[in-house]
Amino acid sequence: MAEAVVSLASLPVEPKPAPQELVRPATIGDARSIHDIIKHHADHGEMLHRPLNILFENIRDFQVIAVNGTVVGCVALHVLWEDLAEVRGLAVHPEHQGRGYGKALVLSTIPEAIRLGIPTLFAWSYRPSFFRQLGFKVTDREHLPPKVWSECLRCSSYPTCGETPLIRPTVLDGAGPAR
Question: Would you say the pTM of this structure is higher than 0.85?
Answer without folding.
Answer: no
